[in-house]
Amino acid sequence: MTFAALSEIRSGLTALSEQGLLRQRRMLQSAQDARVHVDGRELLSFCSNDYLGLANHPALAAAVAQALPEMGVGAGASHLITGHHTAHHAFETKFAEFVGLPDALLFSTGYMANLAVVTALVGREGEVFGDKLNHASLNDAALLSRAKFSRYAHNDLAALERLMAASTARSKLVLVDAVFSMDGDVADLPALLALCEAHDAWLLVDDAHGFGVLGAGGRGSLAHFGLQSPRIIYMATLGKAAGVAGAVVAAEHDVITWLLQKARTYIYTTATPPLLSAALLASLQVIAGADDRRTHLRELVMQLRDGLQAQGWELLDSATPIQPVIIGSNEATLAISSALLEQGILVPAIRPPTVPVNSARLRITLSAAHSAADVALLLNAMGNA
Ligand SMILES: *Cc1c(COP(=O)(O)O)cnc(C)c1O
């Protein structure tokens, strides 16, 4: 018997390989940092989302070491059975307090948190609206909810307004990346909230790349804009600037209680190890006091942008640590990424379908763990590439 389905995926892999789209993993042999060991080599890395350099911070590591004998390794059950530990609870309480929202709920990943919020708030009778450059998890969440899903061109709020005005759905939900993960620009959250108020909709703000980086004390994009509303569901991921893992949703108390009843990605999964919550509590404290790291990071962003602009590269309008350099073709992007690698510098080539066709790019991400000298090395290498 031939196995047609397996032959089909084999030709699919060949096709991806021929188009330069075959994804492969690099193996890290060190902790996440500005310099990492990969395949026996030390490389200067501009790829991580560890914006504040906390992934390997001694205060977080010490919190884990202290928690381990007390809490053990695994949570052993889901939160609603016996997996909910005082460490999880303490983090949720501190997080809500930190971002100034009434209540918070911890999830295993940002992907799962987005699935939870969207499927718990809208169903078949609802309509979900999303920016075309939103993260994949928000799009998947909309599909899973079975609501009508209407996407609008990146930042085109006039188009969003037309869609919302035309909608007859019982419940409406707007999804947005506060900082767009592949372009680095910041969404106009005040205008989005005004639209949600005018059309009686919820607003889910995915702050994966804003929490820890933007706003006073790193409180994130809502603090950056000074926004507050019971319509806002705030989602922060904890594996990026916070340096650990997981995600947290903060909102009105009743919204959080509703998620606890309805969110399948919360209910039907094992709780994260409580020692991670101990690390997260330590991380919140470091984040709050990390103005020096944020100032340093902003200075690195300016240094990089000025240098790349002087060399004539095409940048996007981003003031965040996500600095894409648009190249266009997949092959050229890969070639430049390889040339940088030869010089000991790791910058990922981001290709479709992660970004639109013909907008392949180098995605440089900066971290407070980088020094001005590191950015100068990158600029020099980009000049040679
Ligand atoms: C990384 C990311 C997520 C997913 O978060 P994880 O915790 O990594 O699952 C969601 N939304 C955006 C915008 C992201 O960049």
TrEMBL record:
Pfam families: Aminotran_1_2 (PF00155). Pathway: Cofactor biosynthesis; biotin biosynthesis. Keywords: Biotin biosynthesis, Pyridoxal phosphate, Transferase. The keyword Transmembrane helix does not apply. The modification N6-(pyridoxal phosphate)lysine is found at K240. Substrate binds at R23, H135, T354. Its EC number is 2.3.1.47. Belongs to the class-II pyridoxal-phosphate-dependent aminotransferase family. BioF subfamily. PANTHER family: 8-AMINO-7-OXONONANOATE SYNTHASE, CLASS II AMINOTRANSFERASE/8-AMINO-7-OXONONANOATE SYNTHASE. Catalyzes the decarboxylative condensation of pimeloyl-[acyl-carrier protein] and L-alanine to produce 8-amino-7-oxononanoate (AON), [acyl-carrier protein], and carbon dioxide. This is 8-amino-7-oxononanoate synthase. It comes from Sulfuriferula nivalis.
